[in-house]
Specification:
Chain lengths: ~350, ~290
């Protein structure tokens, strides 16, 4: 296994700049997830690391070697594609062994590796079938198997689970995590599903508009988002945003003062700064139940039951707050309600730079 | 289906009637040809075009195949048959092989406005090729290819290429690009990807290409007449010679038999491969 270091990478299609000055470091054995909305350049970055797309600027190192000018097959990588990209006229065995055959490995070694990967992914019974005769989940296993048989230093996954149904996706997610742990693989994994990102990654790079907004461990990303975009993109249900003005240690939202002494700030904020206060739904509680934090008066609007919890929506001035409540408790809430905002875990952003304060 | 649209409703009867008349319209000439070819000349002279032969005989067929006169020689149309086969096999093989490779190469090249570009290419393929005849004859005689077997094979390959290339390009362009990327990561190069992945996927379209080329080349008259040379005249040219060079009485039965013999190959191709043809066209359509 080997780490990756991408530095100052830029890529554009004509006048359209798709990746801008990307720096990314993936340590050996790490599981890095590239997360971002559709069209933000995740696949392009992955293809650049693989050598499948030319880049305009920057360098790519894999395992300490500069591979920027190398062919994909000379980079020591293996890749799993969103559409599986299995060779339709070959059997599963043919698919798994193709790469090794092309590289001229001895027959015995190929057979051994194919048998090992098939066993690991439980596709041994299907080895002599064609991809067209298999289900989506089985095809996905074959695609992963085809990557595993190569003794690659780095594994690249481009939204490998997005074509599967929800249940299968959860199962495969667990298996990919297991493979990463047991085989000690180094993985760069693209997804726009944040649950997948949070559960799998050791570090997540959140991308937007061809830039990396923040690159951090999942907890860090969730608890201390660096930008307004990251705060809004990561977490479901989404973080509540209250735009206001900073005055004497408090955030004034529509004339309502929310004392913010509990906020964990990096530097003192100047009075009169336009800010956005971000509070996650689970950090707001009912004051009458003794939830900690600043009390604010609101009116209950409606409830959204989500199974394990119910999401309560409350109006505060012209804004709406979502609150995670226990389902039984939620049923008894109505009308005017005093909520408690626990600001110890909240985030404050500069409204103009959209960066964390 | 019930009620109004039952088996014998007026609409149904109308449809069946129309189909029967159309079938008769197309089958009648064929029927006349078959019965005429089985008649003797005295019987034909009686003039009953539609009557069944009194004493069916294969004599006219045998004569057409082996002893009918094409100008000065009298070896039947078999000479033309074998000439056509000799021209056909290499022409079909070469034009399809080259077309598959060029189509594959072009499918990897995706410039902006590709649809327009290839649309123009396709329309060029339909330029009437009579306009090329004279310059080509001059060029071919200059390099000594005129009136040779190689010459006519080269001609068929050249004129088959635009269509073959575009058929294969469109088919390969519909293959997902990720498949190609996967093969590149696996270390396969241009030829390896072509041979191991693209070509096996292209079997249905190869069948379509074979049908198009076989019928096209077999039915060709003017290229054979102009470029093949007397020695290599294909069956169509020989047929014309048989039909037109008769001295004295015109032997309708022999002419009919020779015509049907000439049409046999394309007919057989359509009957045997009709199913494949439809499947190949459909495969291309579904993927695109
Ligand atoms: N061949 C191309 N020519 C021009 N623009 C392209 C090309 N490929 C991608 N782009 C553009 O580059 C941007 C990034 O594309 P990319 O495929 O990397 O997005 P992504 O983050 O993977 O999105 P998704 O989640 O939808 O897969 C998009 O705006 C896309 O329109
Ligand atoms: Mg993508």
């Amino acid at each position: 296994m080997a780490g990756v270091r991408v530095s100052a990478l830029s890529k554009s299609y004509g006048a359209l700049s798709v990746l801008r000055d990307i720096d990314l470091e993936v340590a050996e054995g790490e599981f890095t997830v590239l997360l971002g909305p559709s069209g933000c350049g995740k696949s392009t970055l992955l293809n650049a690391i693989a050598g499948l797309d030319d880049i305009n600027d920057g360098t790519i190192m894999i395992g300490g070697e500069d591979v920027t000018a190398r062919e994909p097959s000379k980079r020591g990588i293996a890749m799993v594609f969103q559409s599986y990209a299995l060779y339709p006229t070959m059997t599963v065995r043919g698919n798994l062994s193709f790469g090794l055959k092309v590289k001229g490995r001895p027959r015995a070694e190929i057979e051994k590796r194919v048998a090992w990967a098939a066993e690991l992914l439980q596709i041994t019974p299907q080895l002599d079938r064609k991809p067209g005769q298999m289900s989506g989940g089985q095809r996905q296993r074959v695609a992963i198997g085809r990557a595993l048989v190569q003794d690659a230093r780095l594994f690249l996954f481009d939204e490998p689970l997005s074509n599967l149904d929800a249940k299968l996706r959860t199962e495969m997610r667990v298996e990919i995590k297991k493979l990463h742990k047991e085989l000690g693989l180094t993985i760069v994994y693209v997804t726009h599903d944040q649950i997948e990102a949070m559960t799998l990654a050791t570090r997540i790079a959140v991308m937007q508009g061809g830039r990396i907004e923040q690159y951090a461990a999942p907890d860090e990303l969730y608890e201390r988002p660096e930008t307004l975009f990251v705060a809004g993109f990561v977490g479901a249900p989404a973080m509540n945003f209250l735009p206001g003005i900073w005055r004497a240690g408090a955030v004034e939202v529509d004339g309502i003062r929310i004392p913010a002494g509990a906020l964990d700030l990096r530097a003192p904020v100047a009075d009169g700064t336009s800010v956005v206060l971000g509070v996650r739904p689970e950090h707001i509680g009912l004051a009458e139940d003794g939830a900690p934090g600043e009390a604010i008066a609101t009116t209950m609007q409606f409830m959204e039951p989500m199974g394990a919890d119910t999401l309560g929506w409350f109006a505060m001035g012209g804004h709406r707050l979502s609150v995670r409540l226990a389902p039984q408790r939620a049923r008894a809430v109505a009308g005017a309600t005093t909520l408690a905002l626990d600001l110890r875990l909240a985030s404050l952003f500069d409204a103009t730079t959209e960066r964390r304060l | 289906m019930r009620g109004q649209s039952g088996a014998f409703s007026p609409v149904r009867l109308g449809i069946y009637g129309f189909l029967l008349i159309s079938a008769a319209f197309f089958l009648l000439p064929l029927y006349v040809m078959v019965v005429t070819s089985l008649k003797s000349m005295p019987e034909i002279r009686e003039g009953n075009l539609l009557a069944l032969p009194g004493a069916p005989s294969a004599a006219a067929w045998i004569k057409a195949w082996s002893t009918a006169c094409t100008g000065l020689t009298c070896n039947g149309i078999q000479v033309g048959f074998w000439n056509s086969v000799t021209i056909l096999v290499p022409s079909v093989a070469v034009s399809i092989s080259v077309g598959a490779v060029t189509g594959y190469a072009l499918s990897l090249w995706r410039p902006r406005g590709a649809a327009l570009l290839f649309g123009i290419l396709m329309s060029v393929a339909f330029v009437p090729y009579q306009v090329f005849l004279f310059p080509l004859v001059r060029m071919f005689s200059y390099v000594g290819l005129n009136s040779t077997l190689l010459g006519i094979i080269v001609i068929h390959t050249i004129f088959g290429l635009p269509t073959m290339t575009l058929i294969f390009r469109n088919y390969f362009a519909s293959v997902p690009i990720e498949l190609f990327k996967a093969a590149r990561v696996d270390g396969a190069g241009f030829w390896r990807i072509f041979g191991s992945i693209m070509l096996p996927m292209a079997v249905p379209i190869i069948v379509v290409a074979m049908i198009l080329q076989t019928t096209g080349i077999w039915n060709d008259f003017i290229f054979g007449l102009v470029f093949a040379g007397r020695e290599n005249f294909p069956m169509t040219v020989q047929l014309n010679n048989i039909v037109n060079s008769t001295q004295g009485e015109r032997e309708y039965n022999v002419d009919m038999a020779a015509t049907m013999l000439t049409a046999l190959v394309p007919l057989a191709v359509y009957f045997i491969s009709g199913r494949w043809f439809v499947r190949g066209i459909a495969a291309g359509a579904v993927k695109g």
